[in-house]
Hints:
The chain is mainly α. It has a single domain (10-415), classed as Amino acid/polyamine transporter I (Up-down Bundle), CATH 1.20.1740.10. 72% of the residues lie in helices and 0% in strands.
Amino acid sequence: MSGLKQDLSLAQGVGLLSTSLLGTGVFAVPALAAQVAGSDSLWAWPILMVLVFPIAIAFAALGRHFPSAGGAAHFVGMAFGQRMAKVTGWLFLSVIPVGLPAALQIASGFWQSAFGWSSNGLLLVQIATLVVIWGLGTRSAGSSANIQTLIAILVAALVVAIWWKGGITPAQIPWPAVSDISPPNLFHALAVMFWCFVGLEAFAHLATEFRNSERDFPRALLFGMLVAGAVYWGCTVAVLHFHAYGEDRAAAASLPGVVVQLFGEHALWIACVIGYLACFASVNIYTQSFARLVWSQAQARPASALAKLSANRVPVNALSTVVGCCLIFTLLIYTLDLPLDTLLVYANGIFVLVYLLCMLAGCRILQGRSRLMAVIGSILCLLLLVIIGWKSLYALVMLVLIWLVLPRKPQTVVKTL
């Protein structure tokens, strides 16, 4: 069913996933974690990696055995039928009105920090970002992978430069004794830090575009997660070492502040550009993933323009639709001046719910250890929904509404795309 160009290598896959996970969180989350848990956050990162590992293994197994551009919707459909696949697909697409504009806001904020641009200038940055993403999307996934691999290298190099210039050595890392760790602070930090590992579900949509999907997709997913975790931990060490956190400063300004402290005011724009590129990478992979989801859902109606591929074997029509919708909602949010934190809350609940649906699908269609990982992942996702509390209502309401609104006949459902 794919038809998509299969040109992704293992290294490119690692670059795509690591930048997707780093994305909007790499500059802000280490400071937020340090603010709520202090040096305990150094333990929180490896603990979080252990907790996310079952979810990652389950996603890797699903992508390896059932590769599809439909990603999460395809997995859920295999387990619970095509109607539930449509519901999951539309649930994931419901992130577009809130999640992508929020990420664009965060990305453009780095331009404000570096150059002091006004809100009108930042809107132009967001529009230009969408145009560049559309241009990348008209080429194969390998083009995005090459750029995002370079971005991952730049982010890692920035962290290495901070450690080198700051004289940070392993002996200076303030590891707290296990007996001194505060469980409430640790749990609070884990709840904040989980959002750094939202991106696995988007990566699943690219499973069919690897040269050797069965071998390289699961490896890229796991290696990419480890790379992102190592960078996040390195950022946390730097933030703690320079005490670059606190309620009196913006979390996203923590690492740029350290860069200025070490290299001078002239280096601020370098940190901000790298921060923007990390956000760009995250928005890019989600936009490309949404396009592939729309294309895969339209396959049941081959005559649809959304079901067509370009000469480069990429879903340009679906991509244009996704980018167009994102542009409309970006302009609407700018006009209404909606707060960023509200947008993020709505998007995060949907991500966790999509994760949960995928884990439940894994419980049904996977075997052996992979099924056990899916069971553990389901429990973790349920706990996360509890932690989110009332903030997850948007996702749950969207799930119910989509279920009620979509017609019951699969062929009719496809015609709504």
